[in-house]
């Protein structure tokens, strides 16, 4: 009888060991997750700050009643305001809109890492050739051009990750909206660059959401 009882205990021991090992692993992972969440809450990262520094206009022409050709170079300054959190910019696309309608192609900014309190400067070209414009926006654009000023929005869409020590977060969507008030009718508000381009100093803060 004793021999049979011992045999039964031998069968149960591996199962008990596996259960204890599994429980220990789950407990350890939960503790690590809680520590990460506490650190993340304490060091909650701040959103990067974007500024539209200037815009150089090479072309902005209505090529037909309902199409637009435009070519810009914009200077965008990005700053990490946090002194303990770094930022990975995995993907950033820059483009221009007029009255909520996209008027240029998207230009990609190469992926980069931004350290604590660091500042990055990007100067992408954004352009669009014979881009169809809605009849309503075409009429509004003609009125704006006649008045000598056009309000554009330079948009930045992308994905970022935050680095806290050795911990790197999941990817977050980033959206920045930068107003660009361009006065085409007055060259006194810009600096002539080359033969046909005008550079405008804007220094406009961008609205950033994550």
UniProtKB/TrEMBL annotation:
Membrane-topology annotation of the record: Single-pass membrane protein
Transmembrane segments: 21-43
Location in the cell: Membrane
Domain Late embryogenesis abundant protein LEA-2 subgroup intervals: 81-178
GO annotations of cellular component type: plasma membrane; plasmodesma
Major localization listed first in the record, in broad terms: membrane
Organism superkingdom: Eukaryota
Keyword annotations of the record: Membrane, Transmembrane, Transmembrane helix
InterPro entries in the cross-refs: LEA_2, NDR1-like
GO BP annotation list: defense response to other organism
Record's keyword annotation contains Transmembrane: yes
Name of the featured protein: Late embryogenesis abundant protein LEA-2 subgroup domain-containing protein
């Amino acid at each position: 009888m004793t021999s049979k009882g011992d045999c039964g205990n031998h069968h149960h021991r591996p199962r008990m060991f596996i259960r204890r090992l599994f429980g220990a692993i789950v407990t350890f992972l939960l503790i690590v997750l809680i520590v990460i969440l506490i650190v993340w809450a304490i060091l909650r990262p701040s959103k990067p700050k974007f500024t539209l520094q200037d815009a150089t206009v090479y072309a902005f022409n209505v090529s037909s009643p309902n199409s637009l050709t435009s070519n810009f170079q914009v200077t965008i300054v990005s700053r990490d305001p946090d002194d303990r959190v770094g930022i990975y910019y995995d993907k950033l696309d820059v483009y221009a809109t007029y009255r909520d309608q996209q008027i240029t192609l998207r230009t990609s900014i190469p992926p980069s890492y931004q350290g604590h309190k660091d500042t990055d400067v990007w100067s992408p070209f954004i352009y669009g050739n014979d881009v169809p414009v809605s009849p309503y926006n075409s009429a509004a654009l003609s009125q704006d051009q006649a008045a000598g000023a056009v309000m554009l929005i330079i948009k930045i869409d992308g994905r970022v990750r935050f680095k806290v020590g050795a911990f790197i977060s999941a990817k977050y969507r980033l959206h920045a909206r930068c107003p660009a008030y361009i006065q085409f009718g007055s060259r006194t508000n810009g600096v002539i660059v080359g033969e046909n381009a005008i550079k405008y100093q804007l220094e406009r803060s961008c609205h950033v959401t994550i």
